[in-house]
Amino acid sequence: MIHRPRAAFEKITPPPSASFTCRRLAGQRFDAPYHYHPELELTWIVHSSGHRFVGDSVAQFSAGDLALIGTNLPHVWINPPTCRRAETVVVQFLPEFLGAHFFRLPEMTPILRLFERAGRGLTFSSPARKKVSIAMEGLVEKTGPARLLTLLEILATLAADRGARPLCSARYAPTQDPTAGEKINAVYRHLTANFRETLFQADLARDFGLSPAAFSRFFRRTTGRGFTETLNDMRLGHACELLRDTNQTIAEICYACGFENLANFNRQFRRRHGLSPREWRAAAV
Asked: Model confidence at 2, in pLDDT bands (50, 70, 90)?
């Protein structure tokens, strides 16, 4: 039976001496549930890996990952059960944390546009990530005006990044049903732990006391995408990692990622990346 964690809404309260929160979180694994909040969130992964779920986006993450999450956009970072160290720096702030009109000043227009684009979640180019990671490293230790000015410099850097890309599809509409958040969080954790194995939607449906059809409707309504599509994306992301970092054959990678036949693996990979696994590996070297 899948464990069902706490509700999805997170209430964030900055300390009395600050207008936003900035925390370094460290432990064996990230333990936050699939959640949402009215604050924007900038998350930099210092150490660990796993899967990042943001709205209808699913992708692998590793050290150096940087994402800006918009207001009330559901999200979670999930480590596999084998993870032994997870560390991140998280900055959270309301869009109007410096007053209702500050980001409407002419000089702040690029940052205001950044906030609007973050409604779909954003990931950033390698040069921007490297520059911002240095600033994020020192942000936790700073106080007063120095901390605020550093955050504004970070936001200006991200606003100028031409390589920034949205995470969610344009069609995605967030759901803020806490009960759905509890259930989908449990499903995501189960998938992260077991995506390499043979999985059946009917088995998960039974764990939640739903028919396969009802589970399928719940999953698509909550995440904006189908269960099989999500599972395939997790497997294909792992395949890319193995293609890049190992000398395993294409067939070995196919089965190591949970696919049950090579033809389907090649077809799904080409559909997702526009290249065959062999072509992708050659381009990634």
From this structure: very low
Confidence of residue 5 (pLDDT cuts 50, 70, 90): very low
Which pTM value belongs to this model? 0.84
The total domain count for the chain is 2
Name the residue among 90, 106, 110, 109 with its Cα closest to residue 39. 90
Do residues 213 and 87 both lie within one domain? Answer: no
- Could you tell me which residues come within 8 angstroms of residue 35 by beta carbon, excluding any fewer than 6 positions away? 8, 9, 10, 74, 75, 76, 181, 185
Q: Token pair of 38, please?
A: 């009215």
Same domain, 161 and 203: no
pLDDT of residue 41: 98
274 Cβ contact partners less than 8 Å away, ≥ 6 residues apart: none
Establish if 102 belongs to a structural domain.
yes
In the Cβ-directed half-sphere of 233, how many Cα atoms lie within 13 Å?
16
Q: What is the chain's mean pLDDT, rounded? A: 90
What distance in Å separates the CA atoms of residue 55 and residue 264, rounded to the nearest whole number? 26
Q: Which residue has the tokens 């759905």?
A: 180
Is 187 domain-assigned? no
Q: Is residue 177 part of a domain?
A: no
pLDDT greater than 50 at residue 3:
no
Residue numbers of the domain that contains 230: 195-284
Indicate the residue type of 104.
R
pLDDT for the residue 179? 66
* Residue 32 DSSP label: P
* Cα–Cα nearest to 83, from 27, 137, 129, 135: 27
In this predicted structure, the answer to whether residue 6 has a pLDDT above a threshold of 90 is: no
